[in-house]
Amino acid sequence: MAAALLVPLAASGQFNLPQPSTDLPGASRLIPAPGGGPPPAAALPAPSLLPAPGDTTLPGIDQRQCGPTPYSALCAKGRWTLFSTLDLTVSAPGFRATYTLEIAQNDEVHATYRETARGKTRSGEVALIGVDGIALRTKEKFPADAPVLDIMISMPIMSAQLAALLLDEGVIGPPADVTAPRAIKAGSDARYIRTAAPNAAILYGPPWRMTGNVRPGATRDDVAFTLKLDFRPVDSKGTPVPGRREVITLDGRASFAPRRASLPDDFDLTGFTVRRDEKDLGAQRSVGEVRRALAR
After folding, report:
1. How many helices (H) and strands (E) does the chain have?
2. How far, rounded to the nearest angstrom, does the alpha carbon of residue 181 sit from its chain's CA centroid?
């Protein structure tokens, strides 16, 4: 549990979807995704296990890492990552997931997930409160030493990054430019797409192609979209698998209305497990109560 409880500060940063770290030269092992779903997430080694001092990157350009060159991986950053709320459905053969995210100005986060694969469903809800408060709610059973927060929050983070990147590549303009329905497309014959959470990453191998459409949403600040991504899956070394292609679809709505200052004090936390670092804070009825407990 300790590893999961050390994550919240990094996780809240990733919800702002900056360019992921380029310190590591790629994936170390694969965490199998639900059958038929998106590509597997690759667990990154803990920083404490890396040699120091010294440069741990490979010489030259590593195409699996984000960067400014025409050969670096494409990673989400900029205006399309600055949504206040996101509702997203990700579909692939045998897999369907829904994710919701809300990000406040103070980097507090509310996220939900529901994933179904091979007839089995997992779901949960996470709130990151203040600097180090975590509220979790799920019926899933985890081993005592499982990185619970990572397991619950990584796919919402990485799916949001994928949607933001594809929208940025397809629209070639800010969200405000979407004033009428239109078709979009994007692709690359050489560059990977990389999405990353604090302790996981997903690579989508080239050549990849995205087709879809964008349209104004229900309010002035909303953008609705339907995107289909055709890509090559990769092996544990980040090398595209010969002769294989996979397709996933992303349907959703993003709001670019101003973020509210923080999660509301009256946000109901009935049934949540609330922690600070390794300490269980006991039952807390609301976000406001958690803030008061964190201040003590």
Report:
1. 4, 14
2. 26
